Write a sequence for this structure.
């Protein structure tokens, strides 16, 4: 017999705590509050997850600023792509990171220094970096790990 757990449940029907310790209500609040995203690792290639998520969020009315040195000056998601987070001159609500786990700490450190008032750090699926998360939380940012907004939005009915 195959068991299919609902989101947030273990195979025994017990509530599970997600690695980032955020509830569905927290994720809903974060997604509804986010108006501007800096998408680190943005790709112009439609088959790449970073491109798909950027397009998805932009289609929902979120301003998505791509961050990729190789694409700087080009248009992605209806905005001019920048080389570094420090090149962004406007307030950003969330940094959504499409980088390897070993690069996350550097990206979070750069984001916290470059983007004053940053509210949220979002690490994509399979990315968990507790040291980077602690750094972000110490500066007042909420941290989402091992999740994708393009999955969470439909799952939560947003």
């Amino acid at each position: 017999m195959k068991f299919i757990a609902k989101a947030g449940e273990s195979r025994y029907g017990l509530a599970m705590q997600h690695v980032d310790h955020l509830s569905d209500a927290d994720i809903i609040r974060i997604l509804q509050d986010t108006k501007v995203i800096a998408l680190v690792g943005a790709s112009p290639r439609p088959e790449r997850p970073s491109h798909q998520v950027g397009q998805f969020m932009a289609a929902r009315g979120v301003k998505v600023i791509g961050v990729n040195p190789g694409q700087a000056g080009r248009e992605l998601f209806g905005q001019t792509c920048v080389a570094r987070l420090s090149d962004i001159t406007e307030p950003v609500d969330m940094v959504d990171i499409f980088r390897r786990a070993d690069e996350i700490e550097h990206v979070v450190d750069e984001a916290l220094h470059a983007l004053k008032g940053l509210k949220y750090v979002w690490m994509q699926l399979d990315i968990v970096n507790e040291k980077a998360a602690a750094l972000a939380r110490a500066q007042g940012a909420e941290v989402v790990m091992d999740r994708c907004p393009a999955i969470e939005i439909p799952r939560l009915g947003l």
